[in-house]
Amino acid sequence: xxxxxxxxxxxxxxxxxxxxxxxxxxxxxxxxxxxxxxxxxxxxxxxxxxxxxxxxxxxxxxxxxxxxxxxxxxxxxxxxxxxxxxxxxxxxxxxxxxxxxxxxxxxxxxxxxxxxxxxxxxxxxxxxxxxxxxxxxxxxxxxxxxxxxxxxxxxxxxxxxxxxxxxxxxxxxxxxxxxxxxxxxxxxxxxxxxxxxxxxxxxxx
Length: 205
What we know:
The longest helix has 12 residues, at 124-135. This protein has helices at residues 54-60, 70-73, 124-135, 146-154; strands at 8-15, 19-21, 65-69, 97-101, 109-110, 116-120, 140-144, 160-166, 174-175, 185-192, 197-203. The chain contains 4 helices and 11 strands.
């Protein structure tokens, strides 16, 4: 792995069998068949225990720039036929530049609170380059979903992997590590909370 100016991290909540979302994702059920309401009420239940999980929640949005796949940004497929601005309302939680991987060009979308969505059509390395240009030596988060994380892991472009494992299984869906070659990781931190296990790994060369 090459030396980079700032750490490239990833925070991802997964089921015990490794899925970040179930099958049949849609606008009405963004997490698909996720064992609950389709909006992650069980998969992301630990978010509601904010005080117990404050450190992990704060780390998840502490990066200076974020990269996500188009499926995480929203349900619109193909050409941008409507002005979809993400799941997070007018003031998304990122408060910085967010680079969305897509095959279809679109002008940047500024939002309240300092978030601007930029749409990148030329691949994962181009998105990382643009994020680095935007924040210099600031940290960059590969924010999901699992398909995007898998691409960055396979390319050796993530330094630190933070997993939040919840005690349920989904059986099928979008799974972390699919298509990723064997890796060497060093566990540097673990903490059990009531509804989740937080694990942090450094990705070794």
